[in-house]
Write a structure and sequence with these properties.
- The structure holds three protein chains of three kinds.
- By secondary structure, chain A is α+β, with helices and mostly antiparallel strands.
- Chain A has 14 helices and 21 strands.
- In chain A, a hairpin with a 2-residue loop joins strand 6 and strand 7.
- The relative contact order of chain A is 0.15.
- By secondary structure, chain B is mostly helical.
- Helices cover 79% and strands 0% of the residues of chain B.
- Chain B contains 13 helices and no strands.
- In chain B, helix 9 runs antiparallel to helix 10.
- The longest helix of chain B is centred in the C-terminal third of the chain and has 39 residues.
- By secondary structure, chain C is mostly helical.
- The longest helix of chain C is centred in the C-terminal third of the chain and has 37 residues.
- Chain C is elongated and about 75 Å long.
- Chain C starts with a helix and ends with a helix.
- The chains are: A alpha+beta, B mainly alpha, C mainly alpha.
């Protein structure tokens, strides 16, 4: 009997002990910049999680991009291309060091790049030879490849120290040359960082930083309201008023070249006519969606590329904003007649489709529901089906996709061309068009673009490409993304990079 | 004979059962995952590099490297063969050994589970005992009312209410994460309240039953006062159904973890399993199936041992 | 879980509870049957200009993030949230009772097989099973129902087997057998009544558990497809707006808690009456 009591005592003693050990303060630690973002650090491979290494500024690439879109030297001081338009030289900055103290040499950079090129994400570069030559990395391509510097901004090509790699070429230890170095990795969730005093631009202003992955959007909102972090990237747009009202953090935002797009299967009877696709685009109440669902009226958009990318944004494109009468007229012209139940019919086919949305981007499903109502007005019937994100490329590949909406970034690298080629020039893209006849015209234009080193010709090509895509509407823009950052009152001097390549932590100071 | 002793016999039975359950669970997971529609390799690729970088070529390579293009029976046989050597394989997403991943995440789940479970009895035992010793009293009525109300509330709602009060309004506790002990308080409390809602009533009823039992009357006839009689004879008897129930609570704990870990961004097994499921990380899912099966069996084993220890009659019966 | 609460230890009668529970159940049943015919706005028609509107005579519970009437969505959600739970439990009960009775009446081999299978399913966390099935069959009613049914039937099988085993050894059954009455007669007049008496409380509690599971699945985004109104999904949809629209969030929460409460009170009330009858 006393045994049982002692068990109870033991239990409460154990609990008291654990509570006492908890009493270490949870308050903001001085000198530690607490960063939270949705992405888990799942592996050490730059092709998988290089974006965390690049954003947290642990590792850097040969070429980097400034928030205003200008390409600048990173590990490389500058670059030039030879007369043959094939041979590129990237001289390495002198005096650079990795976090382990070893110098950043051309050999180390070339070795790192070779491993990166073996992965999928950089296979678009037609590499003929890659080598270290004196203090420079030399890349020779098989065919002219004018946007090579932009592609080398790709996070998968971050330069790591030779000691980072195991015997099989896999990364065992992330040793970069950025302003922050890793001191501890806890699971997939937390990375502890110290500033790197030997950084080329001078050491960062904060002594320590911590990266925490919080995949759940509601949880990120709660952390922001409670003020349990200093910078929270990619907060849920609809939660902005709540976060601001919480008084601990303020949400800052900048429009980024990531966009919520709707793509059609241009090969099925419903959508083979460009007029039908345009009518659907014209029926959508984008400002209503932008202010009610996304809570950002400025994000409504009918073209894919936002003005922040001034090279690719095309001011001359017609605006397909809401025009129900115009949309109905287009459908009438295309021969779709309203049936008894209000849905249009042509040759026995109902103007009806299933819209796939991504289940872990809940706002897409909500937008889909809103569009369902808008399209009903012009006699188009859609059903919304939220699916796991990988199901959409699968549905495009096997041709079962009828209509889909997803979020797509056009700056995987700072030149949009690198995303236009896979998305708009293939019969079956990964995230874009399906069975679109206009792909051959785009293909001819992009081929010319890649080989051209003439700035004004390239500008003309860009305008032509965006015009064709806009008018033919194989995909249509719905709303631009806001890159949202909740910022605590401790943080001063934050810059936001619309390319989402870096979190610009090295300029931040903590009060 | 040693092996003949009830304890070792129970352990032997339970271990056999545990292995069988774990094996069947893993096989079921294998069958389920492969019956799932959609392209597993594409899912794995998306989990590795994110949606933006997903390409079909990458999926094809993962299919080749992960052996996902081989016939199902061969994949299954290979997996079983490796399992026989104690190798659970490597995660297709993180490329780390499944065993390491499970060990890492299990630590959090066990920690949170243990604290939540202990906390639930810290709440339930005093309340249940008081209520049971005075059935119909104020404590009994109010605790029963609260318990029924809590048992009727989904755990995510309990969590949301606790977060709103303690993290967002009062700002006493952090709303999510696991870094310090403070981070554990709210998820543990959410779990504990859900558990206590049931255990308060079990404890109360066990106490009421025992108090009215024949041996208690006998003890009182023997001249012991009610309190002493209950301490000497009642507690042990009342503990038996309670201990059995504790083990059954395991299933609530595991279900609760899926929701609670999602809500509190807690890197436990539930979280791992849901994510692996979404990513179609086959070796990971099967490994988790085995671990969950073993955990259940272990809990039942502990309960059996505790019952044996509490109830000498069972020891006798088992020995015959 | 709930199976255990009904096991032989429930004594407290809570007659008030039983009465309250029954009253609530009748109200909920009325809501399910007649609610959809009430003159309310369309539960899926949106008004993006009137999102998150505060309660008003037009919208007594306010509007949600798409400007839909919350009262109407709560009312139309009732037959789905509750109906699915009831159907799940009815099917799980039939399967469970059948298997339990077969186990009780068969030899060791079949009995062992059925009961080990029941143990196995019990060991499998229910929500995870539903998650797996939701992945297997896509979200929606069917996988959800299968998942919940599968996790509920072993309780009924165990209970039916245990009750039947005890009853089979009782004198009146022995007498009936000696009197040459058929197995069907024994089943119909001797076995089923005690089993069914036990079933009522277990099944009502099961409905409560099923409502909780359905709402959890909805909360995790794996339940019914939008825009179908369902309480759990409504809660997770409104969660980002909770401070601006507390009423809209509270309404489905209250409905879930009330209905689980109603089923729990009734289930426990019946269990308590059974216990008293036995004593």
């Amino acid at each position: 009997m006393s045994l049982l009591l002692s068990r109870r005592q033991w239990m409460s003693a154990a609990l008291t002990a654990s509570l006492v050990s908890m009493s270490l303060s949870a308050a903001a630690e001085p000198g530690v910049l607490r960063v939270a973002a949705p992405w888990e650090y799942t592996s050490n491979e730059p092709s998988d999680t290089g974006y965390i290494m690049a954003r947290m500024q642990i590792a850097e690439t040969l070429v980097m991009v400034e928030p205003d879109g200008k390409l600048v030297g990173g590990i490389a001081e500058s670059w030039n291309v030879a007369e043959d338009r094939l041979t590129w030289r990237f001289p390495i900055r002198s005096g650079l060091a990795f976090h382990d103290g070893t110098p950043v040499t051309a050999e180390a950079a070339a070795a790192s790049l070779k491993l990166a090129l073996a992965g999928e994400s950089m296979q678009q570069i037609p590499v003929d030879e890659l080598k270290a030559d004196g203090n420079a990395v030399v890349i020779r391509t098989k065919t002219p490849f004018s946007h090579l510097p932009a592609v080398l901004v790709d996070y998968a090509s971050v330069i790591l120290a030779p000691k980072s790699y195991g015997p099989d070429g896999k990364v065992v230890n992330v040793i970069g040359s950025g302003p922050f170095k890793i001191t501890k990795i806890d699971g997939k969730t937390v990375i502890e960082l110290d500033r790197f005093d030997g950084y080329r631009g001078g050491p960062a202003k904060v002594a320590k930083a911590r990266y925490t992955a919080i995949p759940n959007g509601d949880t990120r909102t709660n952390v922001a309201i409670a003020g349990d972090a200093d910078l929270i990237f990619t907060t849920v747009p609809s939660a902005t008023p709540r976060i601001d009202a919480g008084g601990q953090m303020k949400v800052a935002s900048v429009t980024v070249p990531r966009i919520r797009v709707m793509a059609f299967n241009s090969g099925i009877p419903q959508f083979e006519d460009a007029r039908v696709r345009r009518a659907i685009s014209m029926a959508i109440d984008r400002p209503g969606i932008a202010s009610a669902v996304l809570r950002h009226p400025g994000s409504a958009s009918t073209q894919l590329i936002p003005p922040v990318l001034n090279d690719w944004h095309n001011k001359s494109l017609p605006d397909y904003s809401r025009d129900v009468a115009g949309a109905r007229a287009l459908l009438d012209q295309a021969g779709w007649v309203q049936g008894a139940d209000g849905v249009r019919v042509r040759n026995g086919v109902r103007l009806s489709a299933k819209l796939l949305t991504i289940s872990n981007r809940p706002e897409l499903t909500v937008i889909g529901q809103a569009m369902q109502a808008h399209l009903k007005e012009i006699g188009v019937e859609i059903s919304v089906d939220p699916v796991p994100s990988a199901n959409i490329p699968a549905a495009i590949r096997d041709g079962t996709m009828q209509m889909t909406m997803f979020a797509r970034t056009y700056v995987n690298v700072p030149d949009v061309i690198a995303t236009v080629i896979p998305d708009f020039t293939r019969e079956r893209s990964t995230w874009g068009t399906l069975n679109w006849p206009g792909r051959d015209r785009i293909k001819a234009l992009t081929d010319e673009y890649v080989q051209s080193f003439d700035a004004s010709r390239k500008q003309a090509l860009r305008m032509e490409i965006t015009k064709i895509i806009h008018e033919e509407t194989p995909v249509t823009a719905v709303a631009w993304f806001e890159h949202t950052v909740a910022v605590s009152s401790r943080v001063k001097g934050l810059a936001i990079d619309p390319y989402e390549m870096r979190y610009m932590l090295h300029t931040v100071t903590l009060k | 004979m040693m092996l003949r002793s009830p304890l070792s016999r129970i352990i032997a039975t339970r271990v056999t059962q545990a292995l069988a359950t774990a094996f069947v669970l893993a096989t079921l997971c294998f069958a389920f995952v492969h019956a799932l529609p959609g392209d597993a390799a594409l899912r794995i690729a998306a989990a590795r590099v994110g949606e933006d970088r997903l390409t079909l070529e990458m999926a094809d390579r993962i299919r080749r490297e992960g052996g996902l293009d081989r016939p199902l029976m061969i994949q299954y046989a290979q997996w079983m063969g490796r399992l026989a050597q104690g190798d659970l394989g490597k995660s297709l997403v993180t490329r780390k050994p499944v065993l390491d991943e499970l060990a890492y995440h299990a630590r959090f789940t066990l920690g949170l589970g243990l604290v939540g479970w202990a906390l639930s009895y810290l709440i339930a035992l005093p309340l249940g005992l008081t209520a049971g010793l005075r059935p119909g009293g104020a404590v009994d009525r109010s605790s029963q009312g609260m318990a029924i109300l809590l048992a009727s509330t989904p755990s995510f709602l309990i969590g949301i209410v606790l977060i709103s009060i303690f993290a967002l309004s009062l700002r006493w506790l952090p709303p999510a994460g696991y870094r310090t002990g403070w981070h554990m308080v709210l998820p543990a409390l959410t779990l504990a309240l859900g558990l206590a809602a049931y255990s308060v009533r079990i404890i109360r009823n066990a106490v009421v039953d025992v108090r009215s039992a024949f041996f208690m009357t006998f003890a009182q006839i023997r001249g012991l006062d009610a309190a002493t009689a209950f301490r000497r004879h009642g507690l042990r008897n009342a503990a038996i159904p309670i201990v059995t129930f504790m083990a059954l609570q395991m299933s609530y704990v595991i279900d609760g973890f899926v929701v609670i870990e999602t809500l509190f961004n807690y890197p436990g097994l539930g979280d791992l399993l849901v994510k692996s499921l979404l990513a179609r990380d086959v070796p990971m899912i099967m490994g988790a199936g085995i671990i969950i099966g073993l955990m259940f069996a272990f809990a039942s084993l502990l309960a059996d041992i505790a019952c044996l220890w509490l109830d000498p009659r069972q020891r006798l019966r088992a020995a015959i | 879980m709930t199976a255990v609460t009904t096991c032989e230890m429930e004594v407290n009668p809570l007659p008030v509870g039983l009465r309250t529970g029954l009253a609530l159940l009748i109200a909920l049943a009325a809501l399910c049957l007649f609610g959809p015919w009430l003159p309310l706005s369309d539960p899926i028609s949106q008004d993006l200009l009137k999102t998150l509107a505060a309660p008003s005579p037009d919208h007594p519970f306010g509007t949600d993030h798409l400007g839909r009437d919350v009262l109407s969505r709560v009312v139309h959600g009732a037959p789905r949230s509750l109906g699915i739970a009831v159907v799940c439990v009815v099917i799980a009960t039939s399967v469970g009772l059948l298997l339990g009775l077969i186990a009780a009446g068969s030899g060791q081999l079949i009995d062992g097989l059925i009961m080990r299978f029941a143990d196995l399913v019990l060991a499998f966390p229910g929500l995870l099973l539903a998650l797996l099935l939701a992945g297997l069959l896509g979200g929606g009613i069917i996988p959800m129902m299968i998942g919940i049914k599968l996790t509920l039937w072993p309780q009924f099988a165990r209970m039916a087997r245990a009750t039947a085993r005890v009853t089979l050894q009782e004198g009146h059954v022995e007498a009936a057998r000696l009197a040459g009455l058929s197995r069907l007669h024994i089943l119909r007049y001797h076995l089923l009544p005690p089993v069914l008496r036990q079933t009522i409380s277990l099944a009502t509690l099961g409905v409560g558990a099923a409502i909780l599971s359905i709402s959890s699945l909805g909360f995790l985004g794996l339940g019914l497809q939008p825009p179908t109104p369902e309480w759990g999904a409504m809660i997770s949809e409104m969660l980002p707006y909770v401070s601006e629209a507390p009423t809209q969030m509270a309404a489905p929460c209250l409905m879930i808690v009330t209905s689980v409460l109603a089923f729990t009170l009734v289930g426990e009330g019946f269990a308590a009456r059974l216990m008293r009858a036995k004593n």
